[in-house]
């Protein structure tokens, strides 16, 4: 009985210490992101919930002068030349487009698309060399032409910078198309620097985001390859409600300080692959949003940017779970984050599961490995209240350098702790200033196994979590780790290279929990 009282008092003391330490902002259980960065996803979640420019009420002739696109399609639809492969080529200049960097050619481009899409022969829309200015452009299906229908960009498309022309948040939209190929060495220039100053939706409940460069909505069995997206006003690519679409050898470029210029954002989609591409932008290089499954990212070079992220998740109550995501063979260069999972606090439950980050190279990355379930928290960094469950996540073979002293940060939910987290062969060297070292790891509410060569070592902060009664972790196997102020003190007071006995934690921790109920 006396022992129980002593342990109870010890629990109260340590609980008090924990509260004081947290008030001093020691960095445990708080979001590692700025409020501005969290706000970035506020608008992106709005984009994920809307249909897009290609809705039935959309007016494809709302921008640009000249004849109606349908009239152009009827007039010139039979004039397409047939190339060596038997594909009928609809050159936009034959429909009135002028590559002089002056005339708005939107209706000519739309006319060429309608003629190609609604025909009965294999078809290609060609945008030849030159600089073509065009307001909002809608490539809408379904098409009657045999699959695939091709859009080839050899020149440069320049966005119209007059925001009054954009009734929906996108510049170029491909919608309701099965069997699409977008290809060519051309450029989609969003002319973002003209309008980035109007990226002012922070804190506003009703605010229209700036137009994304390219939006793919309800596109299936398609390929996008070799093209460049430059200086988007907002997202470069927004992929929504798509199935079996591959993006390969694409180039995305914007300054590192450009606002909300996510490279490629995926939501409500299945079997989307991003391969062998270079992304340098001002936000996430790739962000995988809610209701997405079977997403693959490989061979991507990211930087500058905010890394390759799953999330943010849980901003809106209607968001479904995310599963089966693989990110491998990617390189991160001076990015804010590397491999990241982020969920909003205080939202409807959801789940992110079956996630693999492996064979990654970090070059002077700020947060190489991070789970953040305090995303969107207040400035005082109140403890996480996210109820999303994160499970079966694997961080494997991650090497390189970090400018932060926190190489691995697993900040999970106190209401729904992370389970099945694997950290194996994460080998990072500290490349920041000496005052920020030494390199460490941090775990909160995470059940994780650690193995292979680890730097920072998992045990620098992560300590043993009690197993169910009667179970003792075997020797020389990965341990299950978590952190609480109590278990940290017990670990530091234990003899070197020993593990806290399971029955000790099982006895003491319930006393602490009972004291705060």
UniProtKB/TrEMBL annotation:
InterPro entries hit by this protein: Glyco_hydro_28, PbH1, Pectin_lyas_fold, Pectin_lyase_fold/virulence
Q: Does the keyword Secreted apply?
A: yes
> Where is it localised?
Secreted, Cell wall
Task: Please list which residues make up the signal peptide.
Answer: 1-23
- GO BP, one annotated term: carbohydrate metabolic process
Note whether Secreted occurs among the keywords. Answer: yes
* Keywords, alphabetical: Cell wall, Cell wall biogenesis/degradation, Glycosidase, Hydrolase, Secreted, Signal
Residues annotated as region Disordered? 43-70
**Pfam families given for it?**
Glyco_hydro_28
Task: List where the protein spans the membrane.
Answer: none
Q: Where is the active site?
A: 306
- What does the sequence similarity comment in the record state about its family? Belongs to the glycosyl hydrolase 28 family.
Protein's name in the database = Uncharacterized protein
Query: Which organism is this protein's natural source?
Result: Crotalaria pallida
Q: What is the lineage of its organism?
A: Eukaryota, Viridiplantae, Streptophyta, Embryophyta, Tracheophyta
